[in-house]
Amino acid sequence: MRMPTASDLYPLAGNRLPCLVGGEFISNGRSFDNIDPVNGRILCTVAEADAQLVGRAVQAAGRALRGAQAGRRGGGDRAVEPAVSAAHVEGGAGARVR
Predict the structure, then answer these.
(1) What is the pLDDT of residues 73-88, one digit of tens each?
(2) For the chain, which residues make up each domain, given as ranges?
(3) How far apart are alpha carbons 2 and 62 in whole angstroms?
(4) Which has fewest Cβ within 10 Å: 1, 52, 61, 72?
């Protein structure tokens, strides 16, 4: 068995990670450091999502969820799902948008 190295512990160190929305990598130019709370090392730099990008991500996730579940449920269940998702997003769900 090979011993792990520092690069194994932090494989994304030094990289700037974009947001993945609907299968597309998106970066708006703003970013923040993702810091390891144990030792304070920067794990990677992450693209920051504004409210518009978060909205796009919610829409894309909803489409993906509906597509995955459409074959497993009846039409009545699918009709209710968008309203439930919208109520969850509007209620806050504890998410923080920068």
Answers:
(1) 665 655 555 554 554 4
(2) 6-47, 51-90
(3) 42
(4) 1
**Cβ atoms within 10 Å, residue 58:** 17
DSSP string, 14-63: T-EEPEEETTEEE--S-EEEEE-TTT--EEEEEEPP-HHHHHHHHHHHHH
What are the CB-based long-range contacts (under 8 Å, 24+) for 60-63? 60/21, 60/22, 60/23, 63/22
Of the listed ranges 25-29, 31-35, 50-54, the one predicted with least confidence: 25-29
Token pair of 69 as six digits: 């579940």
Q: Contact, 32 vs 45, CB < 8 A?
A: yes
Nearest-angstrom CA–CA distance, 80 and 60: 18
